[in-house]
Amino acid sequence: MAVEHDVDNRFIAAGCLILDYPLSFPPPAQWHHLCNGDESSGFHNHENHSLSSRWGLDEDMQAALLASDVLNPFAALFAAGWIHLAVGLGTDEPHLSRAVVRVYLLPDDLDNASIPRSHKGLRKARVELIKQLDYSNGTWHGTLGATRSNFPGLFDQTEGAAIQDQTLIKMFNRTPQPLPDPGLIDEFYAREAAIKILDDTVPGVTTKLYPYQRRSAALMLQRETTPGLIADPRYVKVVDQNGQAWYLDPVAGVGVREPRHYEGPRGGILAEQMGSGKTLICLALIEATKHLASRIPELHIKTLVRPKIASLADMAAACATSNSVPWRSVLQDVEAGMEYPNCVEIIRRNPGRYMLSRPSQRRSRAVEQSPVAVYLSHTSLVIVPANLIWQWSGEINKHTKGLRFLIIDAGKPIPSVDELLDFDLILFSNTRFERLMSEAVTTDGSGAQVLNSPLARIQFKRVIVDEGHRLGSSTQASKSDLHLIINLLQVSSRWIVTGTPSKGLIGVDDTTETVSRADYGVLEREDLKRIGSITSLYLHIQPWANEDVWKGDRLTNWMAYVLPPKPNKPDESHPGRVHCLRETLAAVVVRHPLSEIKKLLPTVEEKIVYLDGSYQDVLALNIFAMMIIFNTVQSERTDRDYFFHPYNRKALGELVSNLRQASFFGGAFFSPADIARATETAEQFLAESKVPVTEEDRALLLEALEFGRIALRNNIKECAYTFKELPLYVEHFPFSAGKEWSLDHRDNDPVLMDSSLVLALQQYLQPYVDSPRFLKKLFNSGDFTERGIEARSDALGAHTSIGVATAPNPTRPALAGQAQLGSQDAISPKKRRSMGNGTHLRAQTHETPLPPNNKNIAPALKQTQLVSTASAKLSYLLDQVLKHSTEDIIIFYENESQAYYIAGALEILQVKYLIYSKGISAEQKARNVTQFTEHHNNDYHVLLMDLSQAAFGLDVRTASRIYFVTPVLNPQVQAQAIGRAVRLSHAKPTTVVETLVLRGSLEELLVQRREQMSRPEQWKCRSVLDDRPMYEWILKARILPLPKGVEGGPGEMSNVGLQMLLLGDEEEYDEEADGDYVDKEEEEVEEERDPDGPSPRKKARVTFVLPGEEED
After folding, report:
1. Coil, strand, or helix at residue 153?
2. What are the phi and psi torsion angles at 422 (to 5°)?
3. Which has the closest alpha carbon to 934: 409, 497, 397, 401?
4. Interatomic CA distance for residues 291 and 326, integer angstroms
5. Fewest C-beta in 10 Å: which of 473, 757, 787, 852?
């Protein structure tokens, strides 16, 4: 192919097809005719007279070649003039057995009038042709040994190296840094606002913004007012064989000479790092533009005719408002002393507005609805999760001054249009906003949805959806209520605020692992769907929002352009996918790299704390192992009575959940009757020998049986199950009279108790803590003993008495070996409800709680102290809370029983705490967070937080210590939880994060596997049962060695490291003070003495205080 023919310069010299003789060729005579030539021969198209025929093939040869297997699928393209072809022999082909067919494409942006490009069959054939071409320049010039190229050469060669094997995570992290340019903003007042943002001189913003926050806010304003043009991301700029630029859409098989452009989005995704102040960025944008009104959309710009001539003042006001002149900054600047009430009144009675027609299509005809007036506004609409609405309110009050905002939450009605127009910001909870779907959305006569609300009559300046990543779950066929209602509003700009636009992008900045493109494919599919939904259905970005043929464009399938190739089809990968996704992200995302922000955030000191379990901890874990062993051997590892049969997947999941809870405390699982039945069945199984058992299995059974007998005679375990409480030991019990107050009804010191009994003791003794003589009278009269009996009876509640076993649950599957899953409710329903609604807080008396430095504590109470608990983790947590009592601490838990036990222990130590759990109302959650972070004359330094409620956007910035009661399976979820505290405004430079792991438990392996798994593996692993090594650990459960020489009594518990007094301190007692008080007490008791009662007793008035509330 020595000679290059002058093909019409309209065509793109694209690539080549290879013809192999004799498989693809005509008869030998015609093939030899081709071989005798010394240059390439062009195909002659009789309908295209502009092509030269002086070097064309003869008609017979051309027909034969077009009929070959290689060219026949594309013959119609040639006949229609969509492509041109030339054929020649390879220069390095000695046997003349192969030929090269050059393919020239007619660009789609040329000659559409004479050569239409709308034929679907031809378009499909062209797509296939684009895929089959070899774009190697060596092949084009006849070197058949050249390396094949499946994609044209990129115009920017440096881009080619940068986009190889790119993952969504990498592209998201490398989004171009915001670089606003106010000079590009056409509108004067908007340009001035952008300059003030960058100079940090925005009126009304009282907090100094970091430079990156200013850049982000200014770029948001620039995109709203001057979005500019963006290149169609579907087209990749490439070069043809002659070095000329062209643009290829590899999915649609379309090539053009000139790039296609769209208007950029008026909005996007503010995706700054967690804790970087995204709320403040939004508030700065709102404050900087609150004097600027929204504009009439171009589609609705019409001259409104008045019914009668108005005054000059009215006409001037109407002209100003209709053209969105920022009159507020001139006529209503109170701080500058400029107020013109008369002018303002004239403007208010001539608001800017336009008439909105609602054409809707019926099958037969269009139905024109009555037009409605839509009013221009200065108002921004912000929609936030219900649990964050009060946090937003607090941020507004903290960072701004003079911003007029309205909160619409819960059952609050929506004001009239006139009232709404007075506000700069309307703050909606998402639950209240979504209720509009049932309250105000109706269907008109044509079937179209209509929003009958004042909100529909306002042209909002912008809508901001905080934590709006959930909008990504919508699809074209199934949109969320939030999505549907926003689409029924008139909004100039749309924003989503989220540090994680999709689940797979949580914690993305910290990834340093190298994972193959194929491994990420499955993980990215869902992330890509979500991002596509946001860009097309919410942000309405072209071309992804094309719902119909738009301005000569075509329908576009987002996933077809960005979906990574399947692992078994790596050849389908091409730079076009990466280019398309990268350009789209750059057009919508506002985000700085972590390196820009990380230096401003507090450092995180993470560590795993491995704890040796107490005897009771190991005992609880071993009971689960015992049940698994009994079931495994006696089921012969087959059929439905086997734990690990697929039929029992749900039951196995419950077992694993209970097993994980037992790593904190498992004493409330498995009744003595459960254990007795299981051991008796195993003994009978061995004795009968009906089923052959291997020596290994026999040894396992015997070991489990030996342990079962130990568990059956364990007193503390029996008490834990009976009372459904976490046992603890109290030393130096008052008057050494703890028998009636104890769980085991034994006269020992230390005394076995639980938090509810200790709390009852504290409440009972509180009125008399500084009166030893009166305390002695209570003891001698028997009143002290009687009250202990009552407290113990109350603690038992509805539970069965000690030693009475519960029956097996008939709703659970019958499993081999009488194996049980463990009680599904380790705490009673009543107690679980109390934790869920947040009422399980310290029962406080009207008297002052025991002061830490009161010198008048009676000697009999001074040394009463907590010395150990049944849970190694609880003992460690209590030490940490008291050791760091001046720091703010968050304790993340995964199960209500864990929170219940921790709360009980904190109560008896008089540690004030707050809770953030599922059952608490959004308003109460907000109050708790505010009270925790702002410390308004209180000492709430501990926050118990359900890990599932560690919401996106939640701000608990004051916490300097974080504890995870159990290791979190997905480290990205843990990173999200830590992000609640690691924020710009953090008071301390370092946040300490500790994850508690019980040695010998499944948790040890979980931590190892979490470190070993790649990110895609982590996201696939929804449960420990999804990971084979952890599944095998449970499958092959073994009995752990019990600590030696500690069976029975305090030795079975985990000691606390600090002194934890329960009734007072060790200060010297003031006898003189006691004498005065005793006389008064005796008088009061004589007055209240019941002549028929057994003993005197003063009643303490008790109230329950919710978190965030104070007593009146």
Report:
1. strand
2. -80, -10
3. 397
4. 6
5. 852
- Residue whose token pair is 């009215």: 314
Distance between CA 686 and CA 707 in Å, rounded?
16
Residue 36, C-beta contacts closer than 8 angstroms, at least 6 positions apart: none
Name which of 558, 553, 503 is nearest 536 in CA terms. 558
Are 19 and 67 in contact by the 8 Å Cβ rule? The answer is no
Residue 535 DSSP label: I
What is the separation, in whole angstroms, between the first and last Cα of the chain? 98
d(CA 499, CA 1089): 65
Residue 1080: C-alpha distances to residues 266, 568, 983, 1076 (Å): 76, 89, 54, 7
Q: Kindly state the tokens that stand for 415.
A: 């004001």
3-state SS of 659-694?
HHHHCCCCCCCCCHHHHHHHHHHHHHHHHHCCCCCC
pLDDT in the model for residue 180: 96
Which bin fits 735, alpha (ψ -120 to 50), beta or left (φ > 0)? left
Query: What's the predicted TM-score (pTM) here?
Result: 0.82
Angle between helices 783-796 and 772-781 (to 10 degrees): 70
Measuring CA to CA, how many Å separate 414 from each of 383, 428, 921?
14, 10, 21
Kindly calculate the radius of gyration of the chain based on its CA atoms and give it in whole angstroms.
38
Determine the 3-state secondary structure of 100 from DSSP: strand
Give every strand in the sheet of 990-998, ordered side by side: 603-611, 990-998, 959-964, 888-893, 942-946, 913-916
pLDDT reported for residue 817: 58
Q: Which residues are registered as beta bridge partners of 990?
A: 603
Q: Can you give the pLDDT at residue 567?
A: 58
Residue 1095 CB neighbours (<10 A)? 18
For residue 869, the surrounding DSSP H or E stretch is: strand 865-869
* Phi, psi (degrees; rounded to nearest 5) at 796: -65, -40
Instruction: Supply φ then ψ for residue 690, to 5 degrees.
Output: -75, -25
Which residue, among 420, 429, 423, has the nearest Cα to 392 in the 3D structure?
429
**Residues of 997-1017 as b/e, b for ≥16 C-beta within 10 angstroms?**
bbebbbbbbbbebbeebbbbb
DSSP helix/strand/coil, 991: strand
Count the residues in the chain.
1112
Give the model's pLDDT for residue 367.
53
Cα separation, 125 vs 73, in Å, equals 7
Phi-psi region of 157 (alpha: psi -120 to 50; beta: other; left: phi over 0): alpha
How buried is 428 (Cβ within 10 angstroms: 0-12 exposed, 13-18 middle, 19+ buried)? buried
DSSP secondary structure letter of residue 736: G
Predicted pLDDT of residue 805 = 35
The residue whose two tokens read 């000492």 is 939
Please list the rounded mean pLDDT of every run of 10 residues in the chain (1112 residues): 58 91 56 52 49 53 85 93 85 68 92 89 94 92 84 78 67 89 94 96 94 96 94 93 93 92 93 90 96 90 78 87 84 63 86 79 53 94 90 92 93 93 95 92 82 95 92 84 93 92 59 51 78 91 72 73 68 74 92 86 90 95 93 87 85 88 92 91 89 90 94 93 94 90 90 94 87 84 90 74 39 60 51 47 38 62 92 96 92 92 94 89 82 74 90 77 93 84 74 94 93 80 88 92 85 94 64 41 41 38 35 38
3-class secondary structure, 847: coil
Task: Please give the biggest Cα pair distance in the chain.
Answer: 133
Measured at the alpha carbon of residue 959, what is the angle toward residues 954 and 960, in degrees to the nearest 5?
140
**Cα torsion at 963, 964, 966, 972 (round to 10°)?**
-150
* C-alpha–C-alpha distance, residues 511 and 423, integer Å: 43
The torsion angle over the Cα atoms of residues 450, 452, 454 and 458, rounded to 10 degrees, is 10
Backbone angles phi, psi at 237, to 5 degrees: -80, 120
Q: Which of 837, 822, 998 has its CA nearest to residue 921?
A: 837
Cβ atoms of 622 and 662 closer than 8 Å: no
